[in-house]
Design a protein that fits this description.
This protein is mostly helical. The chain is built from three helices and no strands. It has one domain.
């Protein structure tokens, strides 16, 4: 009987942890989606429309083409790492 009670307690703890993990994953997915949208709105020189990067250049420092490409590549790498982490956590 003691083993059954211990098992039930462990199951309850696991359910709480799973629920917390699901909430955290939802938050991370939302943040990832926001970051992806921000990245999509970043326009490179020669494209039509303004972007977040363009607004940065008007409010202070100027970004040249190479710097914009470097920032965009870093953002892509960060998003890929986040996405991989989310996928790895889903399989657990």
């Amino acid at each position: 009987m003691v083993d059954v009670n211990l098992l039930e307690q462990n199951i309850e703890l696991l359910i709480v942890r799973l629920t917390d993990c699901r909430k955290e994953n939802d938050v991370l997915r939302s943040e990832l989606s926001s970051l992806q949208n921000i990245l999509r709105t970043c326009k490179l020189p020669g494209t039509v429309g303004s972007s977040a990067m363009d607004s940065c250049s008007t409010s202070g420092g100027e970004f040249n083409y190479a710097e914009k490409m470097q920032v965009k590549q870093k953002l892509v790498l960060i998003l890929q790492k986040i996405e991989m982490e989310l996928r790895n956590n889903q399989t657990l």
